Write the structure tokens for this entry.
Amino acid sequence: MSRELKALGMGYLLWGFSIGLYTTQWPVFLLYKLGDPGQVGLANGLISATAVLSYFVGAWMGNHFPKKPLFMLSWGGSAIAPLLWAFGSSDWTIYLGCALFGFISSYSSPLINSYFLDELGDEFMKGSMYTSSTYSIGMMVGPFVGGVLKDIGGYELLMIVTAISFVFSAVPLAFLKKDEPKKKSLMLPKDRSYYQALLWAAVMSFAMMITVPYAPLYAKERFALSGTMLGLLGSISAIGAVLLTYLAVRVSHRSIILRISVWCGILGTMLLISNRWFLWIAFFFRGAFMNTYSLITSGVSHRVPKDYSYIGFALLTATIAAFNSLASAVGGYIYNTGPIVLFLLSSVLMWFSLYLYKLLAESRQ
């Protein structure tokens, strides 16, 4: 394993810890600040919407600037958002923090995926899942610590610690070797199969992400859980995610890992809406949702031409972000109507995404 991959892995571990500090509390925090599930969906949608723009800016920056400082700025600069969330006194401050977080934290994504494709080729899934696994290890600890911080000092303390943690997550990236800008075409790829894969990515992203912001909210409202308990459930999900990524690194077979992960997601969703006794198992299997981005990029990576990898992954991540945004907004509306309907719809769509992937694989043969 190269030094660069190890440095990225450590950065992702600290990044996962930083995200984990607040992510399980996030829907409840937004509801506390904004007062309505529909506005929660809007705030989450704003993060995804600004991320869409950032991917194309990132593709352009990859042609003009070295990757190392771009990565460090993306990781460490994300600290701005939780400070706004902590000290903001209006709804607009929350929305501004969401917009900045979506942009700053996301523009490096196509560059990282391009690095994996250039360095690892057909073993793209191993690199992607390795960093996903270190991210998930951070997520094992982060939610519990975040829950304790929230119960001790409220949301302000939680967000301040999150900001500090984001800054430290950029430190391992200082060990990346110096590099020069690598020129790649920013024209649209011409391969038809690439655009077919984008269609699948859109469906898969929508299906997997429509319930993610609302599962902790549903568990808290139905079972009257404390912040610490929500954090523990988030840590249980991270354990499930790590085990799936370990399996992916060992097996390194796209379709097998994809099928296992989707069925874990479906099972976790069905158990969530059953009864309290299955709550822990439900969140364990819902760890599959933490790997959604790596699953989708790994499922599409072999259809991204290397000479177009900046724009190819920018389009892919933009598609994922756009449909995450749509899923979040639609999910908020459906959740207000009936939470059970939302979780059932997600399960059906996940099954359909598997069927669509099978059709695409057959058309390639």
DSSP finds 16 helices and no strands in the chain. The radius of gyration is 19 Å. The CA atoms of residues 193 and 364 lie 8 Å apart. The mean pLDDT is 83.
